Amino acid sequence: MDKHYKKEGKYSYFEAGEGTPIVILHGLMGGLSNFDGVAQYFPTKGYKVVIPDLPIYTQSILKTNVKSFAKYVKDFINFKGFDKVILLGNSLGGHIALYHTKLYPEKVAGLVITGSSGLYESAMGDSYPRRGDYEYIKKKSEDVFYDPKIATPDLIDEVYATANDRIKLIKTLTIAKSAIRHNMAKDLPKMTVETCIIWGKNDSVTPPNVAEEFDKLLPNSTLYWIDKCGHAAMMEHPEEFNEILEEWLTKKNFSSI
């Protein structure tokens, strides 16, 4: 991933491939590496994969909210000179993608959400990270996945470091409150963009009924399930995730935009 990582102006991002741009938005505790499977696969299929580093912990506290992050994504898309993009988001990234689509629908050709917040916020709000309690952080990290082994020691250490950084913890709580404030239930029925919903059947963070609610409220959505899968389908079952996404992209003829 390193050789495709760029820094230009205020933006840091991964970019690979040529063709229709797929802009990927990572979650609250997630990084660019969560999407390694997508980033390696789709550039070989005629797509340009772009993953910006979202300024989740670097913007001022006043700009630490879903709406400001959505504007950041719009500014990034304009900076890259993209006319229309496919937005793909996991967890908080899905919420940002949804809110961006609400505010700037003219920029979004298609939307892909997986384990997204926006309707049900235990994703961030039910038990805030406890500082200094490594075993608690380890358990919470493992609970994100159906297979706890996906939560590697490196991943757990990263979450632990974030929970023990006072400024990051304050911003995490600020984002959790913002996610609740920016609930999308009333907006979704007006959003007509073609949407692919890929969900883990065993997601305990945003349970399956959340996916069903998204599917019910969004006018042009298709819901796909991945079995034995938790909150981050693109990490836990990358091959199946890519197959589903490619099938949907082909069916909707997005390679031609």
SSE topology sketch:
Layout: E1 5-8, E2 11-16, E3 20-25, H1 36-41, E4 47-52, H2 66-80, E5 85-90, H3 92-103, E6 108-114, H4 122-125, H5 134-143, H6 153-163, H7 166-181, E7 194-200, H8 208-217, E8 221-226, H9 233-236, H10 238-251
Parallel strand pairs: 3-4, 3-5, 5-6, 6-7, 7-8
Antiparallel strand pairs: 1-2, 2-4
Helix pairs in contact: 2-3, 5-6
Written account of the structure:
By secondary structure, the protein is α/β, with parallel strands linked by helices. It has a single domain, classed as Rossmann fold, CATH 3.40.50.1820. It is 40% helix and 19% strand. The chain has 10 helices and 8 strands. An 8-stranded mixed sheet has the order 1-2-4-3-5-6-7-8, sandwiched between helices. The longest helix is centred in the last third of the chain and has 16 residues. It starts with a strand and ends in a 6-residue tail after the last helix. About 2% of the residues have low confidence.
Task: Please give a quick description of this structure.
Keywords: Hydrolase. By secondary structure, this protein is α/β, with parallel strands linked by helices.
